[in-house]
Structures are given as structure tokens and as C-alpha cells.
From TrEMBL:
Species assigned in the record: Selenomonas montiformis
GO cellular component: cytoplasm
Record has Transcription as a keyword: no
The keyword Kinase belongs to this UniProt entry's keyword annotation: yes
Protein task: The phosphoenolpyruvate-dependent sugar phosphotransferase system (sugar PTS), a major carbohydrate active transport system, catalyzes the phosphorylation of incoming sugar substrates concomitantly with their translocation across the cell membrane. The enzyme II UlaABC PTS system is involved in ascorbate transport.
Main location: cytoplasm
Designated name of the protein: Ascorbate-specific PTS system EIIA component
Keywords noted in UniProt: Cytoplasm, Kinase, Phosphoprotein, Phosphotransferase system, Sugar transport, Transferase, Transport
Residue span, PTS EIIA type-2 domain: 4-146
InterPro entries: Ascorbate-PTS_EIIA_comp (IPR051351), PTrfase/Anion_transptr (IPR016152), PTS_EIIA_type-2_dom (IPR002178)
GO terms (BP aspect): phosphoenolpyruvate-dependent sugar phosphotransferase system
Alphabetical list of PROSITE patterns matching this protein: PTS_EIIA_TYPE_2
Native organism taxonomy: Bacteria, Bacillati, Bacillota, Negativicutes, Selenomonadales
Amino acid sequence: MFKEFVETKHYSFHEGFADWRDAIRAACAPLLADGTIEKEYPEIIIEKVEELGPYIVIAPNICIPHAERGRGVNGTAMCFMKTEKPVSFDPDDPDKDARIFVVLAATDDEVHLSNLMALSETLSDEDIVAKVLAAKTPEDLLQIEA
């Protein structure tokens, strides 16, 4: 999985973001750059989080930004972003802070579910999460076996 992020250039590393909305936009940027998504896709994700709350933060430090299949999406892909400083989605709940972001974009429900399941399985491994949190370069990502 991490090798694929590096090979497709679907990754980025950042110090941090004062606003979670900026973090979502930055996490989506590599997918926007290669045409996988349209510029409205991050805005659709932001609207959903504003409407439903930070449902995309699935565990402390882990955020999976995504929106409905197809809207603003031209292809199916995942994109990785890591921040050094936690991004707060709810100032009253530190469990809703995230440093690992994996954007899901999908045109196909079956592939989307498959990607989501693989991602959930990988990020449920505490050792892998610790290595991801320590990663600072694409080379570090390549050393992580999922």
C-alpha cells in the first residue's frame, strides 16, 4: 500500500495545519494534480464534515477523507498525507485529532470498499501506525510493510 502511494506520487508530508479544512485540501492536492479528482471533491468532503461532524477521523491520529462515490471523482485512488503536528477536528475532543490522512476517491463501489477494508486492516496494526507516524520521507514509507 505505502509503495503504491510513493510510486503514484500520491503522498505529501506537512508540518501541520491550523484549520482542518486546509488539511483536507492539502491531503487531496496530489489527486487533484494528476486529474484523479476535480477541485470540488475536497469541498464536498468539507461540507460533509461540517454537516455530520468529524466522522472521517476513524481513530486517534487517523483520518480517512472521502465523500460519495463519483461526485468530483474521475478515477479510483488513495492518497497519503502525514503531518508532524496533530490537526484538530474538534477542540473539545483530542481523540478527533489526526496526523495520518488517507484520502479515498472512487468511481467504483466495489473497489472503494476493497480499498477501505485494506486500509482499515493496515491502520488497525499499532506497529504500522507507529512507523507511519515516525515517517518523514517517501523512503520511510517504502520501509513500511503492510
